[in-house]
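Good morning,

Attaching, inline, the backbone tokens for the sequence recovery test we're adding to the shared suite. The designed sequence is right after.
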């Protein structure tokens, strides 16, 4: 009697994680061999503003994780191909989804089975039949907490771009996918020209603002599927899946020209900032290390050719 009431109060209290972000809803991957059941859970979660993807076969899980990028995985414990515990162990080995919450949904009530699951690093256990309220509260709070933590550890705090290590993890995935699907992929290393002078003449704060303005500029002009990272200092890396060398070079040259025209405003005066970029494609490249090296050497050429240019 009391439980649904308490939950309803909880729902009201937890306004922060419960507020559905319409532009960026929480994403839940459902792994459940009974599709009718999965559909039911999905309907409940969808009604509360979450986006779901249902898979009925455990073997589809890793592919679905990479493609769908869930904030939480809701998983049946007993499935024909592979049990939930084994699957959870495999998911825990994926670097890209480090620490993603996994919640088991099952009829299993034996405590030792539940303990085994928790020992695996699984985040929780919901016992069927589960109420909608319990499902929604458990899933949304954990999913939003994970999303928040993930954004802290994967983004650069000044620019909001991907940080070095996360960019590499994502690049590895995009590179492997491009090879597998025989699709082109281009990689860009970009470095601000004579940036030291900006700090010297206009102050470190003005320098920071240039970094933020370039980041915004790139985000506005690139596709959602492109990766933009702060490689370090005043150096950025861009990954353009599906784009060949020629198109990528042209794109970067357009961006270079447009950015150079922008006026940077600082308390100590106005100025313009240029960048140089090295572009390469994944054609004939064996791994991401070689890809980055190639882009780097192209960047070096662009600098040597006088800066404010693109080399490929
Ligand atoms: P080049 O055209 O050869 O790249 O010249 P540069 O001056 O840009 O290159 P250099 O490597 O000599 O200096 C990079 C400068 O970038 C030095 C450093 O103070 C500045 N920088 C790196 N990270 C930041 C940052 O986060 N904020 C600010 N304001 N400056 C930064
Ligand atoms: Mg089952
Ligand atoms: Mg520089
Ligand atoms: Mg330099
Ligand atoms: Mg540099």
């Amino acid at each position: 009697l009391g439980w649904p009431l308490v939950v309803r109060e909880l729902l009201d209290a937890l306004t922060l994680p419960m507020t559905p972000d319409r532009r960026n809803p929480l994403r839940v991957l459902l792994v459940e061999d009974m599709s009718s059941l999965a559909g039911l859970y999905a309907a409940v979660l969808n009604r509360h503003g979450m986006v779901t993807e249902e898979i009925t076969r455990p073997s589809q899980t890793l592919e679905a994780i990479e493609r769908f990028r869930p904030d939480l995985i809701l998983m049946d414990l007993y499935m024909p191909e592979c049990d939930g515990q084994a699957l959870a162990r495999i998911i825990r080995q994926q670097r890209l989804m480090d620490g993603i919450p996994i919640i088991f949904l099952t009829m299993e009530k034996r405590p030792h089975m539940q303990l085994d699951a928790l020992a695996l690093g699984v985040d929780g256990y919901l016992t069927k039949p589960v109420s909608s309220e319990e499902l929604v509260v458990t899933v949304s709070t954990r999913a939003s907490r994970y999303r928040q933590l993930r954004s802290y550890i994967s983004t650069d705090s000044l620019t909001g771009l991907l940080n070095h290590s996360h960019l590499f993890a994502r690049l590895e995935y995009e590179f492997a996918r491009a090879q597998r699907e025989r699709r082109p992929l281009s990689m860009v290393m970009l470095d601000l020209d004579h940036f030291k002078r900006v700090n010297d003449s206009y102050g470190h704060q003005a320098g920071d603002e240039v970094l933020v303005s370039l980041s915004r500029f790139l985000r506005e002009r690139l596709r959602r599927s492109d990766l933009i990272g702060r490689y370090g200092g005043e150096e950025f890396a861009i990954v353009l899946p599906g784009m060949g060398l020629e198109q990528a070079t042209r794109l970067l040259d357009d961006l270079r020209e447009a950015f150079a025209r922008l006026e940077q405003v600082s308390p100590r005066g106005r100025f313009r900032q240029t960048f140089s970029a090295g572009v390469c494609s994944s054609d004939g490249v064996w791994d991401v290390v070689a890809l980055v090296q190639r882009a780097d050497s192209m960047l070096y050429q662009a600098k040597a050719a006088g800066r404010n240019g693109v080399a490929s």
